[in-house]
Prior knowledge:
CATH architecture of the domain at 7-15 and 71-112 and 237-446: 3-Layer(aba) Sandwich
Bound molecules: pyridoxal-5'-phosphate
Radius of gyration: 20 Å
Structural class: alpha/beta
CATH class of the domain at 7-15 and 71-112 and 237-446: Alpha Beta
Number of strands: 15
Largest sheet: 7 strands, mixed
CATH topology of the domain at 7-15 and 71-112 and 237-446: Rossmann fold
Shape: globular
Number of helices: 19
Helix content: 40-55%
Amino acid sequence: MIEAPLERIDLPIDRIPDRWYNVLPDLPRAPDELLDPQTGEPLSEDYLVRLLPRALVAQERSLERWISIPDEVAGQYRVWRPTPLYRAHALERELGTPAEIYFKYEGASPSGSHKLNSALAQAYYAKQEGVQRLVTDTGAGQWGTALALAGALMGVEVVVYMVRASFHHKPSRRHLMETFDATVLPSPGISTEVGRSFLAEDPDHPGSEATAVSEALEVVRSDPEARFSMGAFANHVLLHQTVIGMEAREQLELVDRDPDYLIASVGCGSNMGGLALPWVTDKLNGRDLTILAAEPAACPTLTQGEYRWDFADATGSGPLSRTYTLGHEFVPPPIHAGGLRYHGAAPLAGLLRDEGLMDAVAYQQNEVFAAGKLFTRLTGFLPAPETAHALRAVIDVARECRERKRKATILFCYSGHGLLDLGAYGKFNSGELQDVETMAESLSDASSPVEVHA
Ligand SMILES: *Cc1c(COP(=O)(O)O)cnc(C)c1O
């Protein structure tokens, strides 16, 4: 008998969450506030509302545990949410593991990843407050794609600074953003002062999330009708993503399971936050639960970075945050998981790691794509390279369960599909994919500490 590779566990459409979960009041300590680099003081309200829609500034610091999802946002979530939870029987059989492997399929969103969960909320609040345009940065293009779509649906213009390496090597995402009517520019590029200075230093600068943030911030500061939009990093983004974990929790209850492992790829920490934050109080109350982050060896923020104050952007003009960082001058090599090339982690993700609530592992590209390929062959679902990092960690954990004969429940976040990443799979299939040496030298160059006297 040929068995089905996957088993689908669905929530009825009316069980979609009507509020986001705010973890801030439940943490052992609050994440440090962002600081103004000039004064060393927490960012003023004026500074923040010039940067972001007011509703998001309020959510950033809110101590209310539950925040209502506006009807207009919930209505659009219903187009693809609740997302399916799947049990990956085929992978369990292939690995011969007694562990059960479940994944939350965020690739079901029309933009192809979890990022639309926050993009829709951000575009909604911008529209409500009369903001003309949202300006943002994007790495591989997943965030830009989500915000471009959200802007089109909510009626807000979107300008995207896209990491130059991806702009040229992943034109499909750019074409998709432009089809949603967004303006897409390569970063570093010639449209901003800071972009021109990066190019003057290095005409072949591959760009990074950090250069793109710097350019987007410069544009927002010079345009009173514009606000900045963040794809990860901020507390409010992780808040919006908690629909992932809340739905998954209900779905696991339907099959009478509690997770022993929560696994996600971490670039900045938004899909991990979305998956894991709804379980953090259980862990704080003593539940035996491993929260495991998977990151690239080429940009090993959580495994080799330090928890300290650093600039959120590459030029040191934006605010200071205290989190895990490789140093704001760190330029990761161009790898195919573009969404994992940021030098820092979201302050909330950094705090989880610093408090010992989150473990982390780093992987090379070839072992990651091998995991992605295995999964695709077994199930037909092609994971984004970012998602394949999580999958690599899942496979390692499931093998360990086999050795220890442990019947654990593993849940991972399938953060996005890889149908626009086939070029990278093609390179892997033909053996052309390069592993990158761990950047010990460039790490020590980039990690000159920032002194803060707060
Ligand atoms: C952006 C992205 C990530 C990494 O970002 P996080 O903020 O760490 O979640 C992971 N997977 C996919 C598919 C992405 O688009």
